[in-house]
Amino acid sequence: TNYSSYNKQAVELLKNYCKLNHHITYRFVDIDSHPEIVNEYTDTISQFDMIFETKTKVDGKEISRTRKLGMLDLLTFTDEFEQKLSQSVYSIYYGSYVESSNAEQAFTSALMTVTDPNPVYVTILTGRSELTQLTYFQTLLTANGYNVNTVDITSEDIPADTDVVVIPAPKTDY
């Protein structure tokens, strides 16, 4: 919470979620002191990342669903920041480039994603010299609770659990 006022707001929001629903809990973990926790997840976990997780039983099988959010997922930035970030491999101080907090939307989306009894799986195909990579579209789908992955169709099969396949304007015929 000492990092920025936006972090403080996010923690207060987490506290409110917990007050409103006793099934929601949170904890802070120092991954340098507890590296074993990082190994529990398939996503790459860094300092300040947030993992939303639920474990449920579906047809007698225990299913774990997770969604990772980074600190930058909780904020809306100016276009100037987005340009600087895309041009730099170095960390940029972003405080003066923040337009607003997205913590509530990000947390709600993450909670909906991990608790959805029937998640929708979207596979975006690559490997055919596509005109675009659809990065923003992937971000938008993920923010709205879809499980999104990318498959190089020239070397991988489409996963069996895929509900929607996106073919983003290939230059090379299938």
List keywords for this structure.
single chain; 174 residues; alpha/beta; 3-stranded parallel β-sheet; two-stranded antiparallel sheet; 7 strands; globular
Description of the structure:
With 174 residues, this protein is of the alpha/beta class. Helices cover 29% and strands 23% of the residues. It contains 5 helices and 7 strands; from the N terminus they run H-H-E-E-E-H-E-H-E-H-E-E. A 3-stranded parallel beta sheet has the order 6-5-7, with helices on one face. A two-stranded antiparallel sheet has the order 1-2. A two-stranded antiparallel sheet has the order 3-4. It starts with a helix and ends in an 8-residue tail after the last strand.
SSE arrangement:
Layout: H1 5-20, H2 35-38, E1 50-58, E2 61-69, E3 75-77, H3 79-87, E4 98-101, H4 103-115, E5 121-126, H5 135-143, E6 147-152, E7 164-166
Parallel strand pairs: 5-6, 5-7
Antiparallel strand pairs: 1-2, 3-4
Strand content: 15-25%
Compute the average pLDDT: 86
Ranges where pLDDT stays below 50 over 5 or more residues in a row are none
Task: Give helix and strand order, one letter per element, not per position.
Answer: HHEEEHEHEHEE
Overall geometric form:
globular
C-alpha Rg (nearest Å): 18 Å
Output the number of helix runs.
5
For the largest beta-sheet, the strand count, sense and barrel status come to: 3 strands, parallel
